[in-house]
Write a structure and sequence with these properties.
Low-confidence stretches: none
Distance between the termini: 33 Å
Structural class: alpha+beta
CATH topology: GIY-YIG endonuclease
Helix content: 40-55%
CATH architecture: 3-Layer(aba) Sandwich
Largest sheet: 3 strands, antiparallel
Number of strands: 3
Mean pLDDT: 96
Shape: globular
Number of domains: 1
Number of helices: 4
CATH class: Alpha Beta
Strand order of the largest sheet: 2-1-3
Order of helices and strands: EEHEHHH
Strand content: 25-35%
Amino acid sequence: MYLPYCVYVLKSLRDGKNYTGFSSNLEERINDHNNGGTKSTAERRPLKLIYCEFHISKADAKRRERYFKSTDGKRTLKYILRDFLKNS
């Protein structure tokens, strides 16, 4: 089954902060971030992919992205990534 939409979290190796986004082409989108093509992350490069989840529906992926940007969603991500965050 092809899952075309991705919600992803990037970690800035410069400031340690996370960036959550949505894309239908994850590899291209990460390259865009790391090449300075995204205004919101250009000064935070380099960026490392630390989480992604794929969805069949664009609407579901965008809803999940909005959730991860909320206070509850950030808390959920910390819980999901607790081992990674502890070791990085």
